[in-house]
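Most newcomers find our protein records easier to grasp once they have seen one. Read left to right, the backbone structure tokens trace the chain's path through space. Nothing more is needed to start thinking about how sequence determines fold. An example says more than a description, so a record of this kind follows:
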Amino acid sequence: MGDLKPPRHVLRIVAAFSRHAETLEFGKSQLASHWGPVALASPHFDLVETNYYDAEMGAGLKKCFWAFAQLADSSTLPDWKRLSNDLEADCQRPGEWPESRPLNLDPGYITEAKLVLATTKDRSHRLYLRDGIFAEVTLQYHQKHWTGFPWTYPDYQRADFQAFFDECRGYLRQQLRQNPA
């Protein structure tokens, strides 16, 4: 029998996309007010792999990632998703934006071995956590690089996204060395 011990803390990240810089800034500042400062922020990437969101969010979407400075307890992932859903709803004020959904926020986390995302959608490869929230291992870190799975969204397999995830992983490792608790 293995010894029971709590998992190490994780690096909280959020994938955000919109076609409005103002909504991205709103999401970033609101999340920082709850979770503390952003340690790493990616460039705003063109989201070109899908047009799935065009009907509700418009065309020309930009996607970015934020990694928060304070490491977190992964068991609270459902709380992160519920907060991000609330913030998305705050942006859906009638008449303020031409789209019905001007902002998408997808929280998750990075460990030394994986990138996990929270979702409200159940699929065969997702595990139920609580409060209507599921978790998906989206990427694994194996043999010094990120690799996907059959279900991994195509944009998460991009080299520029994964270069940012490498930065995040390096930051996490540094934080864990400084605070090994």
